[in-house]
Amino acid sequence: MKIIEEAGAFQPGWAEHFRSADLSIGTYAIPAGATDPQTPHTEDEIYVITAGRGRLTTPSATVDVSPGTVIFVPAGEEHRFTGVTENLTALVIFGPAEYTRATPAAQ
Question: What is the pTM for the complete model shown?
Answer without folding.
Answer: 0.88
